[in-house]
Amino acid sequence: MLNYIYQIERKQDIAKSDIYKGFFEAPFVRAFCDQNGIETATEEGAKHRCPFLLNILETLGIIEQTRTNIMVNYFVISKHTIKTE
Fold this sequence. Notes:
It is a single chain. This protein is mainly α. The chain has a single domain (2-72), classed as Arc Repressor Mutant, subunit A. It has 4 helices and 3 strands; from the N terminus they run αβαααββ. A 3-stranded antiparallel sheet has the order 1-3-2. Strand 2 and strand 3 form a beta hairpin. Helix 2 crosses helix 4. The longest helix is centred in the middle third of the chain and has 17 residues, at 43-59. The radius of gyration is 13 Å and the shape is globular. The two termini are 21 Å apart.
């Protein structure tokens, strides 16, 4: 989810509806799902799956949520969010 927020959305305020529409369409998310035999979610399915990931990020203090939006508070630097190639 962090990669999606940082690499695809690339803004501080993001509508949750944009995340639901685009998360499972991101190339690296599709590749992960294919590699692990996870069925790619529809937009409706994403409305049930994505909140769990967003809640984890909120618990860590990386984002804040309202009913319809998220706000990114911090940029987390790790080998997974920064590509050196």
